[in-house]
Write a structure and sequence with these properties.
The protein has helices at residues 30-45, 48-59. It is an all-alpha fold and 66 residues long. It has a domain at 40-66. The longest helix has 16 residues, at 30-45. The chain binds zinc ion. Zinc ion is lined by residues 26, 29, 31-32, 61, 65.
């Protein structure tokens, strides 16, 4: 009784958590401008947490965009 050899190596693709598309600041929005500035500073210092925070805030703007 010989069982066929199984190659159970299924490539698992990890979600690119730190590779998400960054939102663009909306023109004329002071909040976006501030967040873009913060994001730039964070990028300069390699602060990924702050970059992500700025992106999240920019995407889900508290006041929204009109
Ligand atoms: Zn905005």
């Amino acid at each position: 009784m010989s069982e066929p050899t199984r190659h159970g190596t299924i490539p698992i693709e990890l979600p690119h958590l730190f590779d998400e598309v960054e939102p663009d600041p909306v023109e004329g929005c002071a909040g976006c401008a501030a967040l873009a500035q913060v994001r730039e500073w964070a990028r300069a210092t390699g602060d990924r947490t702050t970059i992500t925070d700025a992106n999240v805030l920019m995407r889900r703007h508290p006041e929204g965009h009109r």
